[in-house]
Amino acid sequence: MKKYTFSIFVFFISTTQPLLSLTKSVQVNTAGTLSTLLSQTELQSLDTLIVAGFIDGHDFGTIQSMSTLQTIDLSGVTVKGYGTPGGLGGFDDNAVPWYAFSECKALTSINLPVSVTTIGRNAFQNCKALKSIKLPPSLTVLMNAAFSGCISLASVDFPVSLAYIGNDVFIGSGLTSLQLPTSIKSIGSHAFYGCIGLKTLDLSSLTITSLDLGVFMWCTELTSVILPSSLRTLDGTFAYCKALTSINLPPNLTSLGFETFSECISLTTLNIPSTVQTIGEAVFLGCTGLKSCNIPNSVTKTGSRAFSGCSGLASIYAYSTNPIDLNSSDSVFKGVNMAGCILYVPSGSRSLYQAAYQWKDFVNIVEMTSTAVNELSGNKNSVLYPNPTSEDFSVIGLEGSAQLRIFDENGRQLVSRSIENNKKVSVSTLPTRVYTVKITTPDGTTTYKLLKR
Questions:
Q1: In a 3-state reduction of DSSP, which class is residue 248?
Q2: 301: Cβ–Cβ under 8 A, 6 or more apart, which residues?
Q3: Which residue, among 137, 140, 147, has the nearest Cα to 100 in the 3D structure?
Q4: pTM for the full model?
Q5: Which domains does the chain have, with CATH numbers?
Q6: Is 365 helix (H, G, I), strand (E, B) or coil?
Q7: What are the DSSP calls for 22-80, one per residue?
Q8: What is the pLDDT of residues 256-270, one digit of tens each?
Q9: Is the pLDDT reported for residue 379 higher than 80?
Q10: Nearest CA to 446 among 395, 386, 394, 385?
């Protein structure tokens, strides 16, 4: 039997073709023509796009349709207006249109045109992979929900030109730090709602007068806040900030609006400035950790459920000789331990509080002595700020110089020195407790309570 040997020769034929580049640089000389400068394959596969020249709404639509884009550089672009500015689908020159990059799921980084002054509504809504954005130096306006749902966006460098932040701009975003420029004039409602990565806030350099409804609501990891001294009103600003332990209310504050600190369960003490006139509805609702609070004699209205659910309250200092009328406010102290919480009232006014609606429900109503006073006669225009404090404080509102003295609970004098308006006084070496601060001017002596943390 013959044996046959088969030799099998396999030939590999290699056809080498150039790989498609995933990066494309395009010069657009006529706005609205970007799509004609890209092949169909490029429209479907590019991950990096660099554009220079002129673009308009049509071109933004082209870019948004490129679902594989991860990096976009528009720094060399001039944006031309489209349609009727302010109308449906229209926008001005140098503006990023509404929904321009909305739902661009692959987008991680973008450089915007340097001449852009406005970023439109929902421009980057739900760009969940976006980690880096370079905002233009001429930017003045961030419109509503511009970066809402950008869960990977941890930080943003804001230009010094930025003046207006609209409603819901960073709602649910991944911000872990926030440094706003002094140019800010207005922050819209819910602007930073649900930014659970924020832990501390220092807004002291701002000159704004209000923080609108729910600006930092549901920032559940936020622990401490320094507010601007210019602030006049708060409205639901820190509701449900469950980790908040420290906040200094500024000396010119006039109103605490609806649910300002609702459900701030970690907040233990709060000093309300003697400029506040209104404590709104449900301001401290559910603040179970709150141990002590003052109600200055400047307050003329306290809303329904203002302190409802504050089960940990051990003391309230009410400084109005005549009790605030609560007849039109329901359940102001519902859930407060009326048998255990001590209500401190001015000397000579105990009987008035014992007869007043809802105030009379406190079992222990005690007239204040000089060691329990937060504000007495003297220069009512001067206040301690911040208070509480852990390091130092200033006396704001002084005219000329004054003599400052600090006493402990036994009346022992610890500090005596001359001071001037807004000059810092260090208390960093003093133990944590409540101190009496006396400030003497030619007009008399004003006495305050200072809480050292």
A1: strand
A2: 277, 278, 279, 324, 329
A3: 147
A4: 0.79
A5: 373-452 (2.60.40.3080)
A6: strand
A7: SEEEEEESSTT-GGGGS-HHHHHH-SEEEEEEEE-HHHHHHHHH-TT--EEEEEEEEEP
A8: 999 999 999 999 888
A9: no
A10: 395
199 versus 4: which is more confidently predicted?
199
Is residue 448 helix, strand or coil? Answer: strand
Q: Which two tokens stand for residue 439?
A: 């400030």
Q: Which residue has the tokens 């130092």?
A: 392
Alpha helices (runs of H) in 92-210, residue ranges in sequence order: none
Joined together, the tokens standing for residue 103 give 């739902």
Query: Residue 397, Cβ neighbours under 10 Å: how many?
Result: 17
How far is it, in rounded angstroms, from Cα 112 to Cα 169? 17
Note whether 153 and 128 are within 8 A (CB). Answer: no
HSE-CB at 239 with a 13 A cutoff on CA atoms is 24
Neighbouring CB atoms inside 10 A of 285's CB total 24
Query: How far apart (Å, rounded) are the C-alpha atoms in residues 137 and 160?
Result: 7
The number of angstroms, rounded, from the C-alpha of 202 to the middle of its chain's C-alpha atoms is 9
Instruction: Note the pLDDT of residue 199.
Output: 96
Residue 331, sorted as left (phi over 0), alpha (psi -120 to 50) or beta, turns out to be: left
What are phi and psi for residue 160, nearest 5 degrees? Answer: -70, -5
- pLDDT tens digits for 129-141? 999 998 999 999 9
Partnered with residue 234 across adjacent β-strands are: 211, 256
